[in-house]
Design goal:
The protein has 321 residues and is of the alpha+beta class. It contains eleven helices and 13 strands. It has two domains: 197 residues, ATP-grasp fold, B domain (D-amino Acid Aminotransferase, Chain A, domain 1, 2-Layer Sandwich), CATH 3.30.470.20; 87 residues, Dna Ligase, domain 1 (2-Layer Sandwich). The chain is 29% helix and 23% strand.
Length: 321
């Protein structure tokens, strides 16, 4: 369905060109992109700033080091393997257990140690990296979602994408894996995106394959009844990513672990725009509201979160246009 540009502007929809020129290029210092494009650098930086992330178990940088992989994971029933420079969830392998000497993937399929080593080799060769350059492998602890989150998703771990502008969380979306997405919380592969009220963490609106849905296709869960736990801590963790990176416009992906609570998964300097469809609302009014705040004033992450929670509720219509 085609929509006139004038209507998109009326509803405050941020398009790709405007996002690139007015927000990413303007507010993101290019020299700092490697801090978020490389997940290993992000993780090490987060540890320096005392932001909670899944525990790092090992790093593999060279092909010969794949022989050491069994030793790295010998005491782990579950773990995640990630390309340091991957994007869009590509190349991530989640192992949730072992069975008869085999490794059990999040989808329930089993693979051998040789299968995993081949996957490691593909990561190192750059098969999943942003520009096809040689990559590194990150091995980290498996996330155990809180009991509420376990009921929300088909396999996989639900995560929450925040758009953070100048340190203010302005929009949020819960991503739920489905059978169609093979247990991955990736909207392009068929995951469900649920828009979340910034003021409360409550579900507002949901989409799958860019179409509105009211229930999860596999679990039958009514999506607008979702209430995300530990909401204020999630907002605060996303807000603190600004001090950590000094990038003005980013996507922050977070999870809620059963034991450790809110945790940072990764950051993105070029976050996608489907979060607007999931929320049934445009980003522009929220971004403009932040741009009207006096840039010479400094507010703490806690103060920025309070502003966002008090401002970007379901009744927010933006500044006069």
């Amino acid at each position: 369905m085609w929509i006139l540009p004038s209507l998109l502007n009326k509803y405050g929809i941020l398009g790709m060109n405007r996002r690139n020129v007015s927000y990413i290029s303007r507010y993101n210092i290019r020299s700092r992109y490697p801090l978020v494009d490389d997940k290993l650098k992000t993780k090490l930086l987060a540890e320096k700033f005392k932001l909670s992330t899944p525990k790092l178990r090992g790093v593999i940088k060279y092909q010969y080091e794949t022989a050491y992989f069994p030793k790295i994971v010998e005491n782990l029933d579950g773990f995640a393997v990630k390309p340091a420079k991957g994007s869009g969830g590509k190349g991530i392998l989640v192992i949730k257990g072992r069975q008869d000497g085999l490794f059990v993937k999040s989808s329930g399929q089993t693979i051998t140690i040789d299968d995993i080593k081949r996957h490691l080799s593909n990561i190192l060769a750059g098969l999943y990296s942003l520009s096809g350059v040689p990559d590194s492998v990150i091995i980290e602890d498996l996330i155990h979602p809180s009991e509420m989150f376990e009921k929300l998703s088909y396999d996989g771990v639900p995560d929450i994408r925040f758009i953070v502008f100048k340190g203010y969380p302005v929009m949020a979306m819960l991503r739920l894996s489905t059978r169609a997405s093979d247990g991955k919380a990736n909207l392009h592969q068929g995951a469900v995106g649920v828009g979340l009220d910034i003021s409360s963490g409550k579900g507002l609106h949901a989409i799958q394959h860019s179409r509105r849905v009211e229930k999860h296709p596999d679990t039958g869960l009514v999506l607008d009844q979702i209430q995300v736990p530990d909401w204020k801590n999630l907002l605060l963790l996303s807000a603190k990513s600004y001090e950590m990176t000094k990038l003005g416009y980013i996507g922050a992906d977070l999870v809620v672990d059963k034991t450790y609570g809110a945790m940072l998964l990764e950051l993105n300097a070029r976050p996608g725009l489907s979060i607007q469809a999931a929320n049934g609302a445009g980003l522009l009014p929220r971004l403009e509201a932040i741009e009207h705040i006096d840039p010479d004033l400094y507010f703490t992450p806690e103060e920025r979160v309070e502003f966002s929670m008090n401002t970007f509720n379901s009744d927010f219509k933006g500044l006069p246009r």
